[in-house]
């Protein structure tokens, strides 16, 4: 298959894919991969296969094609192709919750000396790295990366990237419980879709609606949460987007749990868990198990709650997800307090505070914890964040956290 024919077949596959004929598109692209002698064409078709498998939640296949793409990039001896292929390798590992590998491949991308094309990819690299740091609950570095990605998006007038970063920032602020910002950023993403997204994939609209649903649910606006989640789920079903379907099912379950309708929540958690297991989203599984645990606690089935916690803890330790561990210790504390098991209660109180210290989840001004309840937060340019009211009341000549870190311990 020559260069022109390769190009035609790739375009044919794209047309089929955009018409929701995904399996036909995959067959066309696989044929190109088998028969084309054009390395640049093979590189491009591998990019199409990587994107398609990402959206379907076939992350192991995504990773497999990303590895092949790196070999093709080396064959082409082009730094731009190599940067793009390492980005795809980073994104594949991010989807499989291999966060340390993601960060390592992202750093490889940023160290490459390519042309302006590579520089334009740096925003996507920063976004992927931010998502990985967030998965590891390293909040300051996650925020640094998201803000860097946002600067790249603004400098390159890349509205799609800006939309994706806003959704990640929504997720970031949901986790540290500043729910006003958790809603603001996906609303901003939805505005970008409305203003610029006429030719974009509907996944951007679905993504912003899902993150809005999560924020509305946290704010107690359950009817708004349900409306946004239903819209997101509708698009996810139309496009066969399994990862988003799993997240919407989790959100539906959480909404029903917030209404104390445990019997409706359980089957939705089960459906979400099934898809999360199938696609390999272990971070999502931790969220499902946290929801299931809370349902058992509502029903006062404390031993069943502890069983769910044990499964979630194994996943969180495996991923290095410190926030998940903190939430689990908090739930254990409540359970053992109710069961009046003092030794277990003390153990989990100690572990909870160790997690808070490790993640620096406290305000460097008032010393109170961050992420325990809904609070307005403000980040300084160094990406350390504080209670907004503390910054307003006390003012600051630089960051107190950075000042503490710069003081070297004396020798005794």
In the CATH scheme, the class of the domain at 362-411 would be Alpha Beta
- What string, H for helix and E for strand, traces the elements in order? HHHHHHHHHHHHHHHHHHEEHH
What is the share of helical residues? over 70%
In quaternary terms, these chains amount to single chain
Helix/sheet category? mainly alpha
Mean pLDDT: 90
**Beta-strand percentage range:** under 5%
Give me the number of helical elements: 20
CATH topology of the domain at 362-411: Herpes Virus-1
Uncertain stretches of 5 or more adjacent residues: 407-412
Q: Termini, distance in Å?
A: 74 Å
Task: Walk across the major sheet and give the strand order.
Answer: 1-2
Pfam family, one: TPR_8
Organism: Cinclus mexicanus
Domain RING-type: 363-403
GO molecular function, one term: zinc ion binding
Verbal overview:
Postsynaptic protein required for clustering of nicotinic acetylcholine receptors (nAChRs) at the neuromuscular junction. It may link the receptor to the underlying postsynaptic cytoskeleton, possibly by direct association with actin or spectrin. Keywords: Cell membrane, Cytoplasm, Cytoskeleton, Lipoprotein, Membrane, Metal-binding, Myristate, Phosphoprotein, Postsynaptic cell membrane, Repeat, Synapse, TPR repeat, Zinc, Zinc-finger. It is a single chain. The chain is an all-alpha fold and about 400 residues long. It has a domain at about 360-410: 2-Layer Sandwich (Herpes Virus-1), CATH 3.30.40.10. Helix content is about 80%, strand content about 0%. It is built from 20 helices and two strands. The protein has helices spanning about 5-20, 20-35, 40-55, 60-75, 80-95, 100-110, 115-135, 140-155, 160-175, 180-195, 205-220, 220-240, 240-260, 260-280, 280-300, 300-320, 320-340, 340-360, 390-395, 400-405; strands at about 375-380, 385. Strands 1-2 form a two-stranded antiparallel sheet. β1 and β2 form a beta hairpin. α6 (about 100-110) runs antiparallel to α7 (about 115-135) and α7 (about 115-135) packs antiparallel against α8 (about 140-155). The longest helix has 20 residues, at about 115-135. It starts with a helix and ends in a 6-residue tail after the last helix. Residues about 405-410 have low confidence and may be disordered.
């Amino acid at each position: 298959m020559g260069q022109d024919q390769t190009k035609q077949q790739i375009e044919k596959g794209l047309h089929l894919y955009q018409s929701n004929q995904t399996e036909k598109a995959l067959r066309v692209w696989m044929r190109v991969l088998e028969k084309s002698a054009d390395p640049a064409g093979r590189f491009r078709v591998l990019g199409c296969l990587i994107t398609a498998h990402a959206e379907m939640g076939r992350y192991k296949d995504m990773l497999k094609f990303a590895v092949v793409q790196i070999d093709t990039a080396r064959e082409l001896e082009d730094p731009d192709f190599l940067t793009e292929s390492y980005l795809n390798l980073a994104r594949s590992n991010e989807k499989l919750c291999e966060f340390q590998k993601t960060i390592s491949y992202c750093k490889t991308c940023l160290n490459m000396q390519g042309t302006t094309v590579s520089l334009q990819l740096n925003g996507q690299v920063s976004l992927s790295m931010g998502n990985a740091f967030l998965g590891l609950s390293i909040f300051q570095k996650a925020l640094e990366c998201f803000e860097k990605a946002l600067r790249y998006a603004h400098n390159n007038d890349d509205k799609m990237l800006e939309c994706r970063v806003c959704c990640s920032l929504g997720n970031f602020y949901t986790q540290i419980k500043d729910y006003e910002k958790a809603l603001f950023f996906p609303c901003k993403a939805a505005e970008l879709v409305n203003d610029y997204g006429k030719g974009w994939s509907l996944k951007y609209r679905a993504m912003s609606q899902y993150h809005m649903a999560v924020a509305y649910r946290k704010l107690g606006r359950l009817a708004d949460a349900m409306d946004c989640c239903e819209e997101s789920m509708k698009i996810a079903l139309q496009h066969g987007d399994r990862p988003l379907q799993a997240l919407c099912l989790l959100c539906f379950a959480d909404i029903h749990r917030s209404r104390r309708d445990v019997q409706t929540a359980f089957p939705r958690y089960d459906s979400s868990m099934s898809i999360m297991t199938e696609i390999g989203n272990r971070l999502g599984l931790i969220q499902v198990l946290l929801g299931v645990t809370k349902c058992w606690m509502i029903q006062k089935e404390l031993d069943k709650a502890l069983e769910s916690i044990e499964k979630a803890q194994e996943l969180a330790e495996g991923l290095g997800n410190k926030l998940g561990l903190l939430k689990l210790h908090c739930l254990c504390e409540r359970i053992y307090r109710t069961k009046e098991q003092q030794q277990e209660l003390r153990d989990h109180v100690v572990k909870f505070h160790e997690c808070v210290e490790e993640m620096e989840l406290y305000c460097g001004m008032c010393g109170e914890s961050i992420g325990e309840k809904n609070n307005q937060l403000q980040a300084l340019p160094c990406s350390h964040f504080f209670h907004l009211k503390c910054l307003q009341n006390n003012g600051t000549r630089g960051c107190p956290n950075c000042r503490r870190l710069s003081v070297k311990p004396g020798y005794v």
